[in-house]
Write the structure tokens for this entry.
Amino acid sequence: MKILFVELLGGIGDLIIALPAIKALALTYPQSQVTVLTFPPYGELLKADPLIYEVVYAQKGEVRQAIAQMLAQQHFDIVVSDTNYGGIADIIRESGAQRTVTNLWRNPPDDQLVGDRFLQILQQEGLIAPEVISEVKPLIYLLEAEIAQAKRTFGAAYRPIVFLIPDAGMQIKRWSKVNFVTVAQALQQQYNATIVVAGGDEFACEIAQEIGESTRVWQRGTLRELAAGLAQADLAIAVDTGPARIAAALDVPTITLFGPSWHGRYGQPTPHVNLQGYLDCSERNIANFTEQSCWYSGICPFEWDSCTQEITPQQVLSAAAVLLQKQRSPLTLPVNREITNQWQNLRNILVMRLDNIGDVIMTSPVLRSIKENLPQAKLTLMVSPAGASTAPLLPWVDEVIPWRVVWQDLGRLDFDPAREWEMIEMLRQRQFDAAIILTSFSQSPYPAALACYLAGIPLRLGESKESGLGILTNSITPAPDEIHQVERNLRLIESVGFQVSDRRLSLHICDPAPFPYPYILLNPWTSCESRNYDTQRFAIAARQLAEITKLPIVVTGTSKDSDRAHPLLDILGDWAINRIGATSLSEFAAAIAHARLVLTNNTSAMHIADATNTPSVVLFAGTELECQWQPRYAAVKILRRPTVCNPCYTFSCPYELECLDISPTQIVAAGLELLSR
């Protein structure tokens, strides 16, 4: 048996709306060959569909000729068309097919989806079996190679991935740029979402630029390339346009914003969400929206550009929250209510992050979230002696305990078990209700957990790749190594029920701006030699930027850097303002917060710049993976040469730091781009 389905209503969305009807015919007649006649290039979306035998194209303006030619060349047993304009119905009825059905449209009720109407008519005509209706939905099939290519494009992007589809081709269908930006920034803040703007046109690029540096633009390509990209998404937010239907047909939860057309007829099937603008529009003609005055004029007769403007960002964010909850990331752990109750009644909490300054700064979202959830609880932070300098920057912490622990020692501590027993006794005397042990992907929480166990702390939370039996009362399965450290920290507290409203780094900047004029800050050294970009090249790049921008260069570092600073200061000459060894951490953070631009290596300055939303150029050595530590929100240019040895996790490089073989010209170009925004 041969079946021809004629889908020539005119758009991508129309073809996808017809897909359930096409599939229902194929399932009712499993031995049949189903051919679809449609417009190019929409038919490429049907490639690889196991139920469709062939796709044939009709050129617009030549519809009648294409159908006549098709029916003259082949005999079909069943011919179905979803429209009847231009004499299509007459040609089909005269084709000699045993069964014909034309104009599936037939003016459905106001609140019946068009796709459901198609199925209803075909069932009434006796052409599809009732039992197949529940089996069909508008589903697009992708090839494994297409999926693999899209995954490579996204790399290690954070989930959830949210696609914005802002361009409908008609002004009266659009949602405003400011609304898209507001929604995207809120999703970044609350979910650490990767935002992708589809389109690549001027409107899409403007939206992406206003959202921020980490936003991606999905350039125009083939429909199948777009579909493969959308298939990686956890959520799509779109105006009423064909790509919105592609997203839904890939089972991507989709929020569609409707203006002139009526969501009750053209909306996506559940569980997708359809939001209608201006429900009570006096101009609306649900039976035929093309007769509305706005449709062909492209001008809304009311005070806005489009009735979609009545849809608020909060409505979209509320819908997004529901859909994202259903599409929880595999990194998100289920929350046990009994465990949650234990952790929500605490009054004295210890957080342990016994590492460097930058690591402690990255705990700020955890500390803020704990205090927001339990404002009456005392929050104590146990850190390394260096990490203790962060105390003025972390207003949520009531007490800081500096301690150099033996399991974080680099060979400086003497053998002295009494020192560890002293620490355990100190913890015991403070009578903590719970300990939250924050670690990196390569660290174990068990040394700290054992100390807390011996100190009698009843609740002990940590993430580990190891099994420690009862040493941790709450141990979560490890996240992939590639997850960002901030997300690793937040995932830990979310596992016991803490709600996180803001995933950004933040610091309390209590010191004033160090200078009354704009400047560039250069922080050229780290405590790890394998992360240090060549000092002379840093100086050359900074001087060139100063000469171009007329901005002075504030040079920072510790007192230990003073001796090696002379060559750098000589190159900078009168452009340099020497603050090496002259700032506390609080003053250093204030200097970064008020800078026009920061030049630095992968060190605490990078994290402070992210927390204070200061643009930065980061010379990121191959010692670590960028995805674990890089800035997530502030504008940044990360410079590193790819090398085979990355990541090496070493303190010294045996290969002359090829990963940081970056020319001063590249640094200058990156800095000027950031300063121009």
